[in-house]
Amino acid sequence: MPSATFLPPRSDLLSHCGRAAHDLGLAALLGGQLFGRLALHPAVTAIADERERGAVVNAAWRRYGAVNGVGLLAVTAGWAAARAGQAHDRYLVPRERRLARAKDVLVAATFVTGAATATEGVRFARQVPGGAVPLTDGDHAAPAAPDRARRLKRTLNALGVVAIATEAALVGVNAALDQTAFRRAPLRRRLRRGS
User: How far apart are CA 165 and CA 170, in angstroms?
Assistant: First the structure.
């Protein structure tokens, strides 16, 4: 996040903590999605019983749900606080302003997608007691699964793709904002010394 104003040390520390929480939250969200899609979901095919696969996948996502929830709050609250203060439009140059507005959209999309995924994931797991929805792998409900569970799984897969896309785009916008602020920093230091 840009730091176009010079903050007092206490505010600066608070800003650093908020930014770290924001970045850790985003890392947890994107890392969890990638781990689930690329590692957990294919790995459960080693479990012979389709219902046990479902129970394992749903238990894993239920446990990680707390991490995702904290991550969503950290990303959203961190950016909202920054936008109310040091990343407010009045402190930004035009390029930063455009990037900040793009980030506004991506943070909102990440929050909505994350909340929808959590809601649909809980609904999916509740289709069968103990979350034992029959799965062919972590991404696909087995033919033995209830029709509603198969529909919910397709919805979860689509939401997962959107979540990965929005979170990855958010990483990209963060990098662009950081680079823009970094390039402006030497000028700010020179101006501050000259005053």
Answer: 9
Q: Phi and psi (nearest 5°) for 9?
A: -50, -40
d(CA 26, CA 64): 14
Amino acid in position 172: G
Q: What's the average model confidence in pLDDT over 83-94?
A: 88
Residue found under tokens 């033995």: 144
In whole angstroms, what is the distance from residue 133 CA to residue 39 CA? Answer: 19
Tens digits of residue pLDDT in 118-153 = 999 999 999 999 999 999 999 999 999 999 999 999
Q: Where are the beta strands (DSSP E) in 108-194?
A: 135-137, 140-141
- Residue 111: which of 151, 80, 82, 83 has the closest Cα? 80
**26-60: per-residue pLDDT in tens?**
999 999 999 999 999 999 999 999 999 999 999 99
- Residue 165, exposed/middle/buried by CB under 10 A (0-12, 13-18, 19+)? middle
Q: 24 and 74 in contact (C-beta within 8 Å)?
A: yes
CA distance 32 to 124: 18
E strand residue ranges, 21-179: 135-137, 140-141
Torsion of the alpha carbons at 80, 85, 88 and 94, rounded to the nearest 10? -120
pTM assigned to the model: 0.84
